[in-house]
## 1
Amino acid sequence: MKKNLKKMVGVSCFVVLGVMLLVLCFGVTAGARNRMMRAERQKAYLEKKEIVVREIRDYLGSQGYQNSGVTLTRREYGENEEEYRLQVHHGRMEHLSKEELDALAETLAGYAKGFGSDAIMQVSFR
Protein backbone atom coordinates (compact mmCIF):
# COMPACT_ATOMS: atom_id res chain seq x y z
CA MET A 1 0.00 0.00 0.00
CA LYS A 2 2.80 2.40 0.92
CA LYS A 3 4.53 1.50 -2.33
CA ASN A 4 1.43 2.35 -4.36
CA LEU A 5 0.96 5.61 -2.47
CA LYS A 6 4.58 6.64 -3.12
CA LYS A 7 4.21 5.69 -6.77
CA MET A 8 0.97 7.74 -7.09
CA VAL A 9 2.59 10.76 -5.42
CA GLY A 10 5.59 10.48 -7.72
CA VAL A 11 3.43 10.21 -10.84
CA SER A 12 1.23 13.10 -9.67
CA CYS A 13 4.26 15.33 -9.08
CA PHE A 14 5.61 14.42 -12.50
CA VAL A 15 2.26 15.25 -14.17
CA VAL A 16 1.93 18.57 -12.30
CA LEU A 17 5.48 19.58 -13.22
CA GLY A 18 4.87 18.59 -16.84
CA VAL A 19 1.69 20.66 -17.02
CA MET A 20 3.44 23.65 -15.44
CA LEU A 21 6.27 23.35 -17.96
CA LEU A 22 3.80 23.26 -20.86
CA VAL A 23 1.95 26.32 -19.54
CA LEU A 24 5.23 28.18 -19.15
CA CYS A 25 6.33 27.30 -22.70
CA PHE A 26 3.03 28.40 -24.23
CA GLY A 27 3.10 31.64 -22.21
CA VAL A 28 6.62 32.48 -23.37
CA THR A 29 5.72 31.70 -26.99
CA ALA A 30 2.57 33.83 -26.87
CA GLY A 31 4.45 36.72 -25.26
CA ALA A 32 7.18 36.60 -27.90
CA ARG A 33 4.60 36.51 -30.68
CA ASN A 34 2.82 39.51 -29.16
CA ARG A 35 6.07 41.49 -28.96
CA MET A 36 6.87 40.64 -32.59
CA MET A 37 3.43 41.75 -33.76
CA ARG A 38 3.76 45.01 -31.83
CA ALA A 39 7.21 45.65 -33.33
CA GLU A 40 5.84 45.00 -36.83
CA ARG A 41 2.94 47.43 -36.23
CA GLN A 42 5.39 50.07 -34.96
CA LYS A 43 7.62 49.62 -38.01
CA ALA A 44 4.65 49.91 -40.38
CA TYR A 45 3.45 53.04 -38.54
CA LEU A 46 6.87 54.71 -38.80
CA GLU A 47 7.03 54.00 -42.53
CA LYS A 48 3.52 55.39 -43.09
CA LYS A 49 4.23 58.35 -40.81
CA GLU A 50 7.26 59.34 -42.87
CA ILE A 51 5.18 59.31 -46.07
CA VAL A 52 2.22 61.18 -44.55
CA VAL A 53 4.40 63.89 -42.97
CA ARG A 54 6.24 64.38 -46.28
CA GLU A 55 2.90 64.72 -48.13
CA ILE A 56 1.61 67.21 -45.55
CA ARG A 57 4.80 69.29 -45.76
CA ASP A 58 4.59 69.26 -49.57
CA TYR A 59 0.95 70.39 -49.43
CA LEU A 60 1.71 73.16 -46.90
CA GLY A 61 4.65 74.31 -49.03
CA SER A 62 2.39 74.54 -52.08
CA GLN A 63 0.03 76.73 -50.03
CA GLY A 64 2.80 79.16 -49.09
CA TYR A 65 3.73 77.65 -45.73
CA GLN A 66 7.23 76.42 -46.56
CA ASN A 67 9.33 75.13 -43.67
CA SER A 68 6.30 74.42 -41.51
CA GLY A 69 6.91 72.46 -38.35
CA VAL A 70 4.89 69.26 -38.59
CA THR A 71 4.56 66.86 -35.65
CA LEU A 72 2.53 63.68 -36.01
CA THR A 73 1.94 61.38 -33.05
CA ARG A 74 -0.04 58.22 -32.47
CA ARG A 75 -1.68 57.01 -29.31
CA GLU A 76 -2.79 53.41 -28.95
CA TYR A 77 -5.82 52.63 -26.81
CA GLY A 78 -6.11 48.93 -27.47
CA GLU A 79 -5.35 46.27 -30.02
CA ASN A 80 -6.82 48.18 -32.97
CA GLU A 81 -7.74 51.55 -31.49
CA GLU A 82 -5.46 54.42 -32.40
CA GLU A 83 -5.66 58.19 -32.41
CA TYR A 84 -3.46 60.41 -34.54
CA ARG A 85 -2.60 63.98 -33.64
CA LEU A 86 -1.08 66.44 -36.05
CA GLN A 87 0.41 69.69 -34.87
CA VAL A 88 1.48 72.31 -37.42
CA HIS A 89 3.69 75.28 -36.60
CA HIS A 90 4.09 78.28 -38.89
CA GLY A 91 4.21 81.96 -37.96
CA ARG A 92 1.89 83.05 -40.77
CA MET A 93 -0.88 80.71 -39.60
CA GLU A 94 -1.57 82.80 -36.52
CA HIS A 95 -3.00 85.47 -38.85
CA LEU A 96 -5.59 83.12 -40.38
CA SER A 97 -9.25 83.39 -39.43
CA LYS A 98 -10.99 80.57 -37.59
CA GLU A 99 -12.79 79.58 -40.80
CA GLU A 100 -9.51 79.41 -42.72
CA LEU A 101 -7.88 77.33 -39.97
CA ASP A 102 -10.89 75.00 -39.87
CA ALA A 103 -10.74 74.52 -43.64
CA LEU A 104 -6.99 73.84 -43.50
CA ALA A 105 -7.47 71.43 -40.58
CA GLU A 106 -10.13 69.53 -42.53
CA THR A 107 -7.84 69.23 -45.54
CA LEU A 108 -4.91 68.06 -43.42
CA ALA A 109 -7.08 65.56 -41.53
CA GLY A 110 -7.73 63.88 -44.88
CA TYR A 111 -4.10 62.75 -44.89
CA ALA A 112 -4.99 60.36 -42.05
CA LYS A 113 -6.34 58.02 -44.72
CA GLY A 114 -2.70 57.03 -45.24
CA PHE A 115 -3.09 55.07 -41.99
CA GLY A 116 -6.32 53.36 -43.03
CA SER A 117 -9.79 54.25 -44.25
CA ASP A 118 -11.18 54.63 -40.72
CA ALA A 119 -8.26 56.61 -39.29
CA ILE A 120 -9.09 59.90 -37.61
CA MET A 121 -6.59 62.69 -37.12
CA GLN A 122 -6.92 65.64 -34.77
CA VAL A 123 -5.25 68.75 -36.16
CA SER A 124 -4.04 71.76 -34.20
CA PHE A 125 -1.99 74.84 -35.06
CA ARG A 126 0.56 76.82 -33.06
Note: The radius of gyration is 27 Å.
## 2
Amino acid sequence: MKRHFRSSYVKAGIILFLAAAAGFGLPWVLLRFGDEQRLGRVEQEEVSQMELTDQPVLTIVEKIRLMQRASSNSMVLAKGRNYSTNTIGARIAGELDALSELGLPVPSADLEDSVFSMTPVFMMDVESENSFIVWTGEVYVDSGVQMELSLDDETGKILSLSCVGSVYEEIGSGTDAADSFGGYLGCHVASMSVSDSEVTGYLDEEMKKIYESEIQNQAESGSTWDDARAQVNERWGLDNLGYTASVNYGDESGMEVQYWISVSEGDGSLQILPR
Protein backbone atom coordinates (compact mmCIF):
# COMPACT_ATOMS: atom_id res chain seq x y z
CA MET A 1 0.00 0.00 0.00
CA LYS A 2 2.80 2.43 0.81
CA ARG A 3 4.44 1.75 -2.55
CA HIS A 4 1.14 2.30 -4.38
CA PHE A 5 0.54 5.54 -2.47
CA ARG A 6 4.05 6.83 -3.30
CA SER A 7 3.54 5.99 -6.98
CA SER A 8 0.22 7.82 -7.01
CA TYR A 9 1.79 10.85 -5.32
CA VAL A 10 4.61 11.02 -7.89
CA LYS A 11 2.15 10.72 -10.76
CA ALA A 12 -0.01 13.42 -9.24
CA GLY A 13 3.00 15.70 -9.02
CA ILE A 14 3.86 15.13 -12.68
CA ILE A 15 0.30 15.80 -13.79
CA LEU A 16 0.08 18.93 -11.63
CA PHE A 17 3.35 20.24 -13.10
CA LEU A 18 2.17 19.62 -16.67
CA ALA A 19 -1.22 21.14 -15.94
CA ALA A 20 0.40 24.36 -14.75
CA ALA A 21 2.68 24.28 -17.77
CA ALA A 22 -0.40 24.09 -19.99
CA GLY A 23 -1.64 27.31 -18.42
CA PHE A 24 1.52 28.99 -19.73
CA GLY A 25 0.98 27.70 -23.27
CA LEU A 26 3.94 25.32 -23.44
CA PRO A 27 4.71 23.37 -26.63
CA TRP A 28 2.15 20.84 -27.88
CA VAL A 29 4.60 17.97 -27.44
CA LEU A 30 4.67 18.53 -23.68
CA LEU A 31 0.89 18.79 -23.52
CA ARG A 32 0.56 15.56 -25.48
CA PHE A 33 2.86 13.89 -22.99
CA GLY A 34 0.65 15.19 -20.19
CA ASP A 35 -2.45 13.86 -21.94
CA GLU A 36 -0.88 10.43 -22.25
CA GLN A 37 0.01 10.47 -18.57
CA ARG A 38 -3.54 11.43 -17.60
CA LEU A 39 -5.09 8.78 -19.89
CA GLY A 40 -2.80 6.13 -18.47
CA ARG A 41 -3.79 7.10 -14.95
CA VAL A 42 -7.53 6.91 -15.71
CA GLU A 43 -7.11 3.33 -16.91
CA GLN A 44 -5.46 2.28 -13.64
CA GLU A 45 -7.30 4.11 -10.89
CA GLU A 46 -10.10 6.51 -10.19
CA VAL A 47 -9.21 10.21 -10.03
CA SER A 48 -11.20 13.41 -9.98
CA GLN A 49 -11.42 15.37 -13.23
CA MET A 50 -8.80 18.11 -13.61
CA GLU A 51 -9.68 21.56 -14.85
CA LEU A 52 -6.94 23.91 -16.11
CA THR A 53 -7.24 27.45 -14.82
CA ASP A 54 -5.22 30.64 -15.27
CA GLN A 55 -2.09 30.78 -13.15
CA PRO A 56 -2.18 33.21 -10.20
CA VAL A 57 -0.24 36.44 -10.66
CA LEU A 58 2.72 36.44 -8.29
CA THR A 59 4.52 39.45 -6.86
CA ILE A 60 8.26 39.88 -7.30
CA VAL A 61 8.93 38.71 -3.74
CA GLU A 62 6.74 35.63 -4.23
CA LYS A 63 8.62 34.73 -7.42
CA ILE A 64 12.03 35.04 -5.80
CA ARG A 65 10.91 32.98 -2.81
CA LEU A 66 9.53 30.35 -5.19
CA MET A 67 12.94 30.06 -6.88
CA GLN A 68 14.53 29.41 -3.48
CA ARG A 69 12.06 26.78 -2.25
CA ALA A 70 13.24 23.17 -2.04
CA SER A 71 9.81 22.06 -3.31
CA SER A 72 10.22 23.95 -6.60
CA ASN A 73 10.74 22.11 -9.88
CA SER A 74 12.00 23.53 -13.16
CA MET A 75 11.64 22.79 -16.88
CA VAL A 76 13.66 24.35 -19.71
CA LEU A 77 11.50 25.94 -22.42
CA ALA A 78 12.08 26.84 -26.06
CA LYS A 79 10.86 30.39 -25.42
CA GLY A 80 9.08 32.47 -22.81
CA ARG A 81 5.59 33.85 -22.95
CA ASN A 82 6.72 37.44 -23.60
CA TYR A 83 10.30 37.06 -24.86
CA SER A 84 12.29 34.78 -27.15
CA THR A 85 16.01 34.26 -27.69
CA ASN A 86 15.73 36.90 -30.44
CA THR A 87 14.21 39.58 -28.21
CA ILE A 88 15.64 38.92 -24.74
CA GLY A 89 18.91 40.76 -25.48
CA ALA A 90 17.17 44.06 -26.19
CA ARG A 91 15.16 43.71 -22.99
CA ILE A 92 18.29 43.08 -20.92
CA ALA A 93 19.98 46.14 -22.42
CA GLY A 94 16.95 48.28 -21.59
CA GLU A 95 16.83 47.05 -18.00
CA LEU A 96 20.56 47.66 -17.48
CA ASP A 97 20.02 51.18 -18.78
CA ALA A 98 17.17 51.66 -16.29
CA LEU A 99 19.36 50.46 -13.41
CA SER A 100 22.17 52.78 -14.53
CA GLU A 101 19.80 55.76 -14.53
CA LEU A 102 18.92 54.88 -10.93
CA GLY A 103 22.59 55.23 -10.00
CA LEU A 104 23.52 51.56 -9.78
CA PRO A 105 27.04 50.80 -11.12
CA VAL A 106 25.94 48.34 -13.79
CA PRO A 107 27.85 47.66 -17.05
CA SER A 108 27.13 49.74 -20.12
CA ALA A 109 23.83 48.94 -21.84
CA ASP A 110 25.62 49.08 -25.23
CA LEU A 111 25.44 45.34 -25.85
CA GLU A 112 25.30 45.35 -29.66
CA ASP A 113 28.31 43.05 -30.07
CA SER A 114 27.65 41.00 -26.95
CA VAL A 115 27.01 37.27 -26.81
CA PHE A 116 23.80 36.24 -25.04
CA SER A 117 23.38 32.76 -23.61
CA MET A 118 19.96 32.99 -21.97
CA THR A 119 17.49 30.18 -21.32
CA PRO A 120 13.80 30.44 -20.35
CA VAL A 121 12.89 28.19 -17.43
CA PHE A 122 9.43 27.28 -16.16
CA MET A 123 9.50 27.26 -12.33
CA MET A 124 6.76 25.67 -10.22
CA ASP A 125 6.32 25.02 -6.53
CA VAL A 126 4.54 21.64 -6.37
CA GLU A 127 3.23 22.39 -2.86
CA SER A 128 1.57 25.75 -3.52
CA GLU A 129 1.03 25.18 -7.30
CA ASN A 130 2.46 28.68 -7.96
CA SER A 131 4.58 29.07 -11.08
CA PHE A 132 6.29 31.57 -13.37
CA ILE A 133 8.86 31.80 -16.16
CA VAL A 134 12.36 33.16 -15.54
CA TRP A 135 15.26 33.70 -17.96
CA THR A 136 18.69 32.70 -16.66
CA GLY A 137 22.15 32.69 -18.20
CA GLU A 138 25.19 34.74 -19.14
CA VAL A 139 26.04 37.78 -21.23
CA TYR A 140 29.57 38.27 -22.59
CA VAL A 141 30.31 41.90 -23.45
CA ASP A 142 32.92 42.81 -26.07
CA SER A 143 34.75 44.99 -23.51
CA GLY A 144 35.53 41.90 -21.41
CA VAL A 145 32.71 42.28 -18.89
CA GLN A 146 30.95 39.02 -18.06
CA MET A 147 27.49 38.95 -16.51
CA GLU A 148 25.27 36.27 -15.00
CA LEU A 149 21.67 37.28 -14.48
CA SER A 150 18.05 36.22 -14.16
CA LEU A 151 15.09 38.11 -15.62
CA ASP A 152 11.37 37.72 -14.98
CA ASP A 153 9.54 36.92 -18.23
CA GLU A 154 6.31 38.58 -17.07
CA THR A 155 7.61 41.97 -15.88
CA GLY A 156 10.95 42.05 -17.72
CA LYS A 157 12.68 42.98 -14.45
CA ILE A 158 16.19 41.76 -13.65
CA LEU A 159 15.90 39.65 -10.49
CA SER A 160 19.61 38.97 -9.96
CA LEU A 161 22.85 40.23 -11.46
CA SER A 162 26.48 39.27 -11.01
CA CYS A 163 29.27 40.73 -13.14
CA VAL A 164 33.05 41.16 -13.21
CA GLY A 165 35.43 43.26 -15.28
CA SER A 166 33.68 46.64 -15.08
CA VAL A 167 35.54 49.94 -14.78
CA TYR A 168 33.70 52.27 -12.41
CA GLU A 169 33.82 56.05 -12.49
CA GLU A 170 31.41 56.31 -9.56
CA ILE A 171 29.98 53.50 -7.43
CA GLY A 172 27.72 55.56 -5.14
CA SER A 173 26.80 54.31 -1.68
CA GLY A 174 25.39 51.05 -0.39
CA THR A 175 22.35 52.80 1.08
CA ASP A 176 21.47 54.46 -2.21
CA ALA A 177 22.02 51.20 -4.12
CA ALA A 178 19.71 49.29 -1.77
CA ASP A 179 16.99 51.95 -2.02
CA SER A 180 17.30 52.23 -5.80
CA PHE A 181 17.15 48.50 -6.50
CA GLY A 182 14.16 48.13 -4.20
CA GLY A 183 12.36 50.90 -6.09
CA TYR A 184 13.27 49.24 -9.38
CA LEU A 185 11.66 45.98 -8.23
CA GLY A 186 8.62 47.80 -6.88
CA CYS A 187 9.47 46.78 -3.32
CA HIS A 188 10.00 48.69 -0.09
CA VAL A 189 13.05 48.35 2.15
CA ALA A 190 12.02 46.56 5.33
CA SER A 191 15.50 46.64 6.84
CA MET A 192 19.12 46.96 5.78
CA SER A 193 22.68 46.99 7.02
CA VAL A 194 25.53 48.53 5.02
CA SER A 195 29.25 48.00 5.37
CA ASP A 196 31.75 50.09 3.44
CA SER A 197 35.14 48.68 2.52
CA GLU A 198 37.07 51.91 2.01
CA VAL A 199 38.79 51.52 5.40
CA THR A 200 39.82 47.89 4.85
CA GLY A 201 43.56 47.56 4.47
CA TYR A 202 44.24 51.19 5.33
CA LEU A 203 43.66 51.63 9.06
CA ASP A 204 44.39 49.71 12.21
CA GLU A 205 41.70 49.25 14.87
CA GLU A 206 42.60 52.44 16.78
CA MET A 207 42.51 54.59 13.64
CA LYS A 208 39.21 53.02 12.60
CA LYS A 209 37.67 54.22 15.87
CA ILE A 210 38.90 57.77 15.21
CA TYR A 211 37.64 57.55 11.62
CA GLU A 212 34.17 56.41 12.69
CA SER A 213 34.04 59.07 15.39
CA GLU A 214 34.74 61.81 12.83
CA ILE A 215 31.95 60.48 10.60
CA GLN A 216 29.57 60.54 13.58
CA ASN A 217 30.53 64.12 14.44
CA GLN A 218 30.13 65.20 10.80
CA ALA A 219 26.68 63.57 10.64
CA GLU A 220 25.58 65.28 13.84
CA SER A 221 26.47 68.64 12.30
CA GLY A 222 23.67 68.20 9.76
CA SER A 223 25.11 66.00 7.01
CA THR A 224 23.59 62.70 5.94
CA TRP A 225 25.57 59.64 6.95
CA ASP A 226 26.73 59.02 3.39
CA ASP A 227 27.75 62.66 2.88
CA ALA A 228 29.55 62.66 6.24
CA ARG A 229 31.54 59.57 5.30
CA ALA A 230 32.41 61.03 1.89
CA GLN A 231 33.66 64.25 3.48
CA VAL A 232 35.79 62.39 6.03
CA ASN A 233 37.18 60.16 3.27
CA GLU A 234 38.18 63.24 1.29
CA ARG A 235 39.92 64.77 4.30
CA TRP A 236 41.73 61.53 5.06
CA GLY A 237 42.60 60.84 1.41
CA LEU A 238 40.75 57.52 1.35
CA ASP A 239 39.26 56.04 -1.80
CA ASN A 240 35.85 54.43 -1.79
CA LEU A 241 36.81 50.85 -2.63
CA GLY A 242 33.33 49.39 -2.41
CA TYR A 243 30.48 48.38 -0.14
CA THR A 244 28.20 45.53 0.81
CA ALA A 245 24.55 45.82 1.78
CA SER A 246 22.24 43.19 3.26
CA VAL A 247 18.66 44.23 2.53
CA ASN A 248 15.24 42.79 3.28
CA TYR A 249 12.69 43.81 0.65
CA GLY A 250 8.93 43.51 1.09
CA ASP A 251 5.95 44.03 -1.20
CA GLU A 252 2.15 43.82 -1.29
CA SER A 253 2.25 40.06 -0.64
CA GLY A 254 3.22 40.79 2.96
CA MET A 255 6.32 38.63 2.52
CA GLU A 256 10.00 39.59 2.51
CA VAL A 257 13.11 38.41 0.70
CA GLN A 258 16.75 39.11 1.56
CA TYR A 259 19.20 40.50 -0.99
CA TRP A 260 22.96 40.85 -0.93
CA ILE A 261 24.31 43.87 -2.87
CA SER A 262 28.09 44.13 -3.18
CA VAL A 263 30.38 46.38 -5.23
CA SER A 264 34.16 46.15 -5.39
CA GLU A 265 36.04 48.79 -7.33
CA GLY A 266 39.24 46.75 -7.23
CA ASP A 267 38.11 43.90 -9.51
CA GLY A 268 35.15 45.74 -11.05
CA SER A 269 32.63 43.30 -9.59
CA LEU A 270 28.97 43.82 -8.81
CA GLN A 271 26.61 41.36 -7.14
CA ILE A 272 22.88 41.82 -6.63
CA LEU A 273 21.72 38.44 -5.41
CA PRO A 274 18.79 37.08 -3.38
CA ARG A 275 19.86 34.95 -0.43
Note: The CA atoms of residues 223 and 229 lie 9 Å apart.
